[in-house]
Write a structure and sequence with these properties.
The complex is a heterotrimer of chains A (about 300), B (about 400) and C (about 325).
Chain A: H1 15-59, H2 64-68, H3 83-114, H4 117-130, H5 134-149, H6 153-178, H7 181-189, H8 194-222, H9 226-229, H10 250-258, H11 263-293, H12 295-299
Helix pairs in contact in A: 1-11, 3-4, 3-6, 3-8, 3-10, 4-6, 5-6, 6-8, 7-8, 8-11, 10-11
Chain B: H1 2-25, H2 30-44, E1 66-71, H3 76-90, E2 93-98, H4 101-110, E3 115-118, H5 124-128, E4 135-150, E5 159-160, H6 162-169, H7 179-184, E6 196-200, H8 205-217, H9 219-225, E7 242-244, H10 246-256, E8 260-265, H11 266-271, E9 275-276, E10 278-280, E11 286-287, H12 291-297, E12 323-331, E13 333-334, H13 337-350, H14 355-358, H15 368-379, E14 382-383, E15 386-387
Parallel strand pairs in B: 1-2, 1-3, 5-10, 6-7, 6-8, 13-14
Antiparallel strand pairs in B: 3-12, 4-8, 4-9, 4-12, 10-11, 14-15
Chain C: H1 16-58, H2 86-117, H3 120-135, H4 138-161, H5 167-172, H6 182-206, H7 210-218, H8 223-252, H9 255-260, H10 279-286, H11 295-322
Classes of the chains: A mainly alpha (about 300), B alpha/beta (about 400), C mainly alpha (about 325).
Chain lengths: ~300, ~400, ~325
């Protein structure tokens, strides 16, 4: 039941009716306002609930011991920490970044600076790649890599790299587009090659935006668990620095400890969850802050919306 | 050493005391009261807690400094103690990933780990699929699978028999105050509450031991699953219930869910102060699971040469009927000298010094016969054709 | 904003070295672009190759029944197929629908508030707060879900299951409710997809022409009537697209769902208050120990199906939303 704007809702009504109608409309208006505000508050409240709960549980145990030690041999014992998971997270996500960064930036350069049929197809498929469930990515890396080379940090890195790749491409593409055309034209006018222009002018101008995009993708990858279940497998007790071996990550360790019934393991898992959330939020907020501070970033900063 | 023994004594005494306390309130008649007390007394004795076996295969030099294993969560508590102690005594890091017996079998068959661990022997079809030749089964320790539950107002020590458990897990008994349960536990305050069944979602040797027992004792269970080849094994098509990952996962579900019942290895129930029940054994006694009754569970069982055997429903009057062992699964024909030596060293250690660690986490050490046979298995490991252990 | 492809104007002054670098550079970046295509192709191919082992053994159509019983698989026989996957499709779709039923109205409300009703100074902070929900890792949501959400849902769940008298709704809501359930998984999914649905709705509402909004107000409409007249009607397809995209996102969610859904894989659960499983959760749970005959290959069938399903939904969603604004999602 919608009225068009041409109709005067007050036509053909008696004054009393008009007054009642007016009252009704105002009440409805206030009511809807109230509902919307309520829903808004409720949403923020849920966010607060999650963060406060995780912080509350995590702070009970988070401390230097947690960050510098490995778990005790017997999971029911209190004490120890997730050092092996933290290190593993950094290694695996680091490998993922090293793999996805050059490929992603290069692909984005192609999309923006060269164009053409290949670019159109790639852009379309990049958006598709964002929608692939991460567990499927894990299954792919299992079938493609793990069956030949075993469970390893590298396999985990490849899986996370595939998760990061479309995000890096999208954010880099946006940043490159924001570089003013005039800069490129000026560079060509001075006799620079296309490659030279891109490397010396365009990329540096967009660099802070690209970096923030990578930081956001990094934060996203650090929080992933599902693909690692099938590729890195986890290593509960010991620090593993060799990426060709099985490795734990913070997310895997949280998962493994959270589903146990041991109070001590759960305490460690909460501390781990708080650490992970803090790390992810730190990266996310830092990335947005950097973006807001630079000229290119101020154009438009959107996180890879995946 | 003294501290550890003290802890065992105190711990077992507390459990026994709470159970005998329970026994007096559940007054099922003088006969079962006496049966409870026998079990309590048995569990109060320290029995064969520290067998102190000698390491008949001396340590071999030149072994690798790390080993990777995966499999049973049943054995995980004792395996993690072993890993820590072994790394301190011999300097070798054993990385063990508890992913369930099914995973352990899969990994050793594919050759992606140095050893697997499974609470149930590998099937013939699984052995045939092994990529690297025959696989040895080396028993490591003995444990008990216990029915564990979380019901407000019901204490530990509830009495179960195999058929009742079978009906619960088949979804035929759905309320805690079902007549069958009340008949077994007339003194307990069983509420009119639905039963939430918890089971394993991963391929589990614990499940295999549990369902082995149910298959032997509960025709209802066998029928509900469609035959005895389907009612027993690591993977079960569970008719009802919530799935948890690993022994820890099941105990997690039990902890969180009022009115739940599941099955876990004894160490998990004790470590988390979960209530667990006593089970009727073959002779007819209700037996509390503990180190002594686990050991009794293996009395009178004949071992085949490849040591693949079922340990449930033992004939001993004090036997706990749902007893199992975890086998280490090792490729018999090794090709990497460092790995081969490391494996022999690790298992000769676990079968000797390691057995003294078992009781501290409520597993029973292997009995003398089984330990000797297990050592014999370790000696069968070969390196490029020749034996590793001299 | 489409960037024109720019190239240097006068080629005669560039050295041949420069041309060589240019050519190399162009080829390198093109190769990078090709990797995206290669990855997608590889995904489909590798999954299909593994899945084909099971599909060819049992026949593709035989997977469309609702009984998953790997323990009954026999290597030599191909009938009956113990790997029925319908209950996973059911679980995936139903948990996501529960999530959308909760998330879409909330997203519309929040987006309306942020774009039209909130004080301008609050716009950015509120958007950021909602987006923050997306930054929390899935495993943390699952952990929080088990210990904070499920106990809180207890009374609600028990209340819902008590209405089982009514015909259709009664079947949906039948108990007993033990916490771990399709419903609990759906609620946490709703929280997880809220940010993306809200963000798209925000952009959709922002495209409503100012002139129309002001005209409505000038005619004496209340703020709500203005929204109803000038903003919502034209946003219908955008909202629908947002819902579809949120659905696609919910389809692929694994860890939080696995921790809350109860992992009942045997068959379709009766109603949403019972334990179930989804396509991602069964893969995550059974993958590393699938050693029954064709078990792992059947999990690849599930993975391939999940890939197709989420790609389909995402493409449909993009189609709808893409028409509204090029910049979204």
């Amino acid at each position: 039941m919608s009225t068009t704007i041409d109709e005067d809702p007050l036509e053909e009504l008696s004054e009393a009716d008009a007054f009642r109608g007016e009252r009704r409309r105002q009440i409805t208006n206030v009511f809807v306002h109230a509902v919307l505000i309520l829903v808004m508050v409720a949403t923020v409240a849920v966010l607060a609930w999650v963060l406060v709960y995780v912080a509350g549980q995590g702070l009970k145990y988070l401390g230097p011991e947690f960050l510098t030690q490995t778990p005790p041999g017997n999971p029911s014992q209190p004490g120890g920490g997730f050092l092996n998971g933290i290190i593993g997270s950094l290694i695996v996500t680091g490998i993922a970044t090293v793999l996805s960064m050059p490929v992603g930036i290069a692909a984005a350069i192609y999309l923006v600076e060269y164009g053409g049929q290949l670019a159109r197809v790639t852009r379309f498929l990049t958006d598709i790649l964002v929608g692939v469930p991460t567990i499927v990515t894990g299954a792919l890396v299992y079938a493609m890599w793990v069956v030949f080379f075993g469970f390893s940090g590298i396999a985990g890195g490849i899986a996370l790299g595939l998760v990061m790749l479309p995000l890096v491409i999208r954010s880099t593409e946006e940043m490159l587009r924001l570089v003013p055309r005039e800069l490129r034209e000026a560079s060509f006018a001075l006799g620079a090659t296309k490659a030279g222009t891109i490397m010396s002018i365009v990329l540096p101008t967009a660099s802070s935006g690209i970096v923030t995009g990578i930081m956001l993708a990094f934060a996203r990858a650090m929080g992933e668990t599902a693909p690692l279940l099938l590729t890195a497998l986890g290593n509960d007790l010991f620090i593993e620095l060799n990426p060709t071996k099985r490795m734990s990550t913070l997310s895997l360790q949280i998962f493994g400890n959270a589903i146990t019934g041991y109070k001590a393991a759960q305490a460690r898992a909460w501390a781990g969850a708080l650490t992970l959330v803090a790390l992810v939020l730190l990266f996310t907020v830092a990335a947005r802050w950097i973006a807001s501070r630079t000229s290119v970033g101020r154009g438009r900063v959107t996180e890879p919306r995946a | 050493m003294f501290l550890r023994n003290m802890t065992i004594t105190v711990g077992v005494a507390i459990v026994a005391a709470s159970l005998t306390g329970c026994g007096s309130t559940s007054g099922d008649g003088a006969a079962s009261g006496a049966q409870q007390n026998i079990a309590g007394q048995i569990c109060g004795q320290r029995g064969t807690a520290n067998p102190e076996y000698s390491r008949t295969i001396p340590k071999i030099d030149g072994g690798a400094t790390s080993l990777s294993g995966a499999g049973s969560t049943f054995v995980a508590p004792v395996m993690s103690v072993w890993a820590k102690n072994y790394s301190q005594s011999d300097g070798v890091q054993v990385a063990y990933q508890p992913i369930g017996s099914g995973g352990g079998v899969q990994q050793i068959v594919a050759g992606t780990v140095d050893f697997g661990a499974s609470d149930t022997p590998m099937k013939d079809s699984e052995l045939r699929a092994a990529k690297f030749g025959p696989i040895l089964h080396i028993p490591l320790t003995l444990g008990a699978v216990v029915p564990t539950y979380n019901v407000k107002g019901v204490q530990t020590g509830l009495k179960f028999d195999g058929d009742t458990l079978g009906k619960i897990f088949a979804g035929k008994i759905t309320k805690w105050n079902d007549p069958a349960l009340v008949a077994l536990n007339s003194g307990a305050n069983l509420p009119d509450q639905p039963i939430a069944v918890a089971h394993r979602s991963d391929g589990s040797g614990t499940t295999a031991v549990w369902t082995d027992f149910l298959t032997k004792e509960s025709p209802t269970w066998v029928q509900a699953l469609g035959g005895s080849d389907r009612s027993f094994g690591k993977d079960i098509a569970w008719p009802v219930g919530i799935g948890g990952k690993g022994n820890e996962g099941v105990s997690g579900v039990i902890n969180q869910t009022d009115g739940s019942i599941g099955y876990v290895e004894l160490a998990y129930a004790l470590a988390q102060n979960l209530n667990y029940g006593v089970v009727k054994n073959k002779v007819g006694n209700f037996i509390q699971p503990c180190v002594a009754t686990i050991t009794a569970g293996t009395q009178g069982i004949a071992y085949p040469p490849d040591l693949r055997v079922s340990l449930t429903d033992g004939p001993d009057p004090h036997a706990y009927p749902i007893t199992g062992t975890t086998y280490a699964l090792v490729d018999q024909n090794q090709t990497d000298p460092a790995k081969a030596k490391a494996l022999v060293n690790f298992f000769s250690w676990t079968l000797s010094a390691g057995q003294d660690d078992a009781a501290s986490v409520n597993y029973a050490p292997l009995g003398k016969d089984l330990q000797g046979l297990a050592m014999g298995m370790v000696q069968k490991i070969t390196l490029n054709g020749g034996p590793v252990a001299k | 904003m489409t960037a024109e492809v720019l190239a240097p104007h006068d080629t005669s002054e560039r050295s041949s070295d420069g041309e060589f670098t240019d050519g190399l550079f162009a080829r390198l970046t093109a190769a990078a672009a090709l990797t995206v295509i290669a990855v997608l192709v590889a995904t489909a191919v590798f999954l299909l190759i593994r899945a084909w082992l099971a599909l060819s053994h049992y026949g593709p159509l035989s997977f469309f029944h609702a009984r998953w019983a790997p323990s009954e698989a026999v290597a030599t026989s191909s009938q009956p197929n113990p790997y029925g996957i319908v209950q996973f499709i059911y679980g995936t779709v139903v948990t996501s629908l529960v999530a959308m039923v909760i998330a879409v109205p909330v997203a519309i409300a929040v987006a309306l508030y942020i774009t039209n009703l909130s004080p301008a100074v609050l716009r950015r902070p509120l958007s950021s707060l909602v987006d923050l929900l997306a930054a929390i890792p899935s495993v943390v949501y699952g952990f929080w879900g088990v210990f904070a959400l499920i106990p809180a849902l207890g009374p609600i769940g028990r209340g819902l299951t008590s209405v089982s008298g009514i015909p259709v709704i009664g079947w949906l809501l039948q108990g007993p409710f033990f916490g771990y359930s399709v419903f609990a998984a759906g609620v946490v999914l709703a929280i997880m997809v809220l940010p993306i649905v809200t963000a798209i709705c925000r952009e959709v509402f922002d495209t409503a022409p100012r002139a129309e909004k002001e005209a409505a107000l000038a005619f004496g409409a209340t703020k709500w009537e203005m929204l109803r007249l000038a903003v919502l009607p034209r946003s219908r397809s955008g909202i629908f697209g947002a819902a579809i995209l949120g659905l696609g996102r919910a389809f692929g969610e694994t860890i939080a769902v696995t921790m809350l859904i109860g992992n009942n894989v045997l068959t379709i659960p009766h109603g949403i208050m019972r334990a179930g499983s989804t396509m991602p959760s069964v893969i995550a749970n059974e993958f590393t120990e699938a050693n029954q005959p064709f078990h792992l290959d059947s999990l690849f069938v599930v993975a391939f199906g999940l890939l197709l399903l989420s790609l389909l939904v995402n493409m449909i969603g993009k189609r709808i939303v893409g028409r509204v604004s090029e910049h979204i999602a």
